[in-house]
Design brief:
This is Endonuclease NucS. It comes from Prosthecobacter vanneervenii. The chain has 189 residues and is of the alpha/beta class. It has two domains: 43 residues, no CATH class; 138 residues, Trna Endonuclease, Chain: A, domain 1 (3-Layer(aba) Sandwich). The chain is built from seven helices and five strands; from the N terminus they run αααααβββαβαβ. Strands 1-2-3-4-5 form a five-stranded mixed β-sheet, sandwiched between helices. Helix 4 crosses helix 6 and helix 6 runs parallel beside helix 7. It starts with a helix and ends in a 6-residue tail after the last strand.
Length: 189
């Protein structure tokens, strides 16, 4: 896209164009020939348990309440916005309600920016982290829709924060979905 074209498109329109281009690139039928010609090997495929992991994440739904570790991590992020590169002049709230009926663990906001944070502590398993990745995708879409419905202009950012490292499989899903992830050290009292 040229500079003039980018100026005419909204952030969402640019993102949609880039995603369409990525899909076209991924659908190119001759990648194996290209890799062979360049002397490269095909990337390893996602392991067979990915479908099962996604199924487990889908069955989780809403939890039975938050753990103490989750609450501590949520409050740490709220009180330390710099860990996710948010300026202190943003307002912050926990359990912020969305029109979709969801609640954000942490929301930072000012007149030009909304940053939604989903937190997963070290007690979260792989399925819960997978669910967190998809929650971020949903929160991004819902917040952008809320802004549009109010005819407001602003940037929306969603971040998954965890004190657990992503497995290679989850890291690959994170990259495919374009979710921002920040790993923090485990909190100690």
């Amino acid at each position: 896209m040229d500079k003039d074209g980018r100026k005419l498109l909204s952030r969402q329109q640019r993102k949609a164009k880039v995603n369409a281009l990525i899909a076209q690139i991924a659908a190119y039928p001759y990648w194996e020939k290209v890799l062979t010609e360049l002397g490269l090997q095909k990337a390893p495929q996602i392991s067979p348990n990915l479908a099962e992991l996604m199924q487990q994440a889908a069955q989780r739904g809403k939890g039975a309440g938050e753990s103490e570790e989750h609450r501590k991590l949520k409050m740490f992020v709220k009180n330390n916005p710099h860990v996710i590169s948010v300026n202190r002049n943003c307002r912050s709230a926990t359990e912020h309600p969305l029109i979709s009926g969801d609640r954000l663990d942490v929301l930072f906001s000012n007149k030009d920016l909304l940053v939604a944070v989903e937190v997963k502590s070290h007690v979260s398993d792989e399925a819960d982290l997978m669910r967190g990745l998809f929650q971020c995708v949903k929160y991004q879409a819902v917040l952008e829709a809320e802004l549009r419905s109010k005819l407001a202009i602003g940037e929306v950012r969603t971040v998954l924060v965890s004190t657990r490292e992503l497995t290679p499989e989850l890291l690959r899903v994170k990259n495919i979905l374009g979710v921002e992830f920040i790993e923090l050290p485990r909190l100690h009292e």
